[in-house]
Amino acid sequence: MREYSTKNTKSFSAKRIDASANRLTIIKTARKLFKEKGPDTSLSEIAKAAKVSRATLYRNFQDKSDLVFALMLHNMEELNAFAQGMEQDEHEFFILIKKTAELQLHYQGLIPYLPESTDDLNNSIINLMKGPVKRAKERGILMENFDPLTDSALIVTMLGSATLQALEVNLEGMMNRAVEIVFKGISPKS
Q1: Which of 55-59, 102-106, 172-176 has the lowest mean pLDDT?
Q2: How many domains, the chain?
Q3: What global pTM score does this model have?
Q4: CATH number at residue 184
Q5: What does the pLDDT look like over 31-46, one tens digit per residue?
């Protein structure tokens, strides 16, 4: 029979902090590997690179779809933090669209791994764009009939699609050119 000590060397909150740190490490490692190696990166590769056991990885994410969804939510959290720092910038909407397109550029190959329902992600993007769209309209640098829901998603999709056929060595250049073309087309002043 196993004896259990009443003196725990590690408190419950310390264990929770460790678990939270492991989860974040896995997400950041997956983000890096998916960006470098593509969507076919295995969960075993991610666990090894994150220096966690496969059991730890599976305790946090039941499968690749679960990890990809967590990664996308993590990207949205970072995008939200980025957007909050941009509120006073006259061109915040355009900068935010470009940043969103860059994320799509690097992670669009993961879309097939997302679960069927991505309402949380979609709602995050919609809520993220509302303020910048409103302020851009007030500043007169965005068409009045621009819809934050459909038009923001359309622009990001267009920018992501523009880079699908680009050579890997020129992805950034193709995306920047697509941004330039799209922005000139939606600006009320040419």
Answers
A1: 172-176
A2: 2
A3: 0.75
A4: 1.10.357
A5: 999 989 988 999 999 9
